[in-house]
Amino acid sequence: MSAVKVLLPKKVAIALESVIGERGKSWAQNLPAVSNAAKSNRDLKVLVDYIKVNESGYETLQAATYVGYKVDASPEEKLCLYYHEANSSERKGIKATLDILNIAVKGID
């Protein structure tokens, strides 16, 4: 049975790569020390914040560290993909909604 890669937000994935590069794969063995070091390290702060707001955040980051991960697309990226697969009336609706909300999304005319 092969292990399944976890899905991480882009910001968390970038921070994890940096931390693994600096500290190795055993970066989270002493979580209190990591939490303390997060006060002065931006990447560790991103990881600690992720752990705090996600019930299984620590386990997810451990799986990402040892098994691997995939980067989750941002909401804007997901909308852009959906937009380009949509029919013309759906595209008009998406465009009208973005215009009403005064939101610009890269890749959507």
Would you write up a description of this structure?
There is one protein chain. This protein has 109 residues and is mainly alpha-helical. The protein folds into 2 domains: 67 residues, no CATH class; 37 residues. 61% of the residues lie in helices and 7% in strands. The termini are far apart.
Domains (count): 2
Question: Structural class, please?
Answer: mainly alpha
* Rg (C-alpha, Å): 18 Å
Query: What is the number of helices?
Result: 6
Number of strands: 2
Order of helical and strand elements: EHHHHEHH
Largest sheet: 2 strands, parallel
Strand order of the largest sheet: 1-2
Between the first and last Cα atoms, what is the distance in angstroms?
A: 44 Å
**Gross geometry:** elongated
Query: Which parts are unreliable, with pLDDT below 50 for 5 consecutive residues or more?
Result: none
Bin the strand percentage: 5-15%
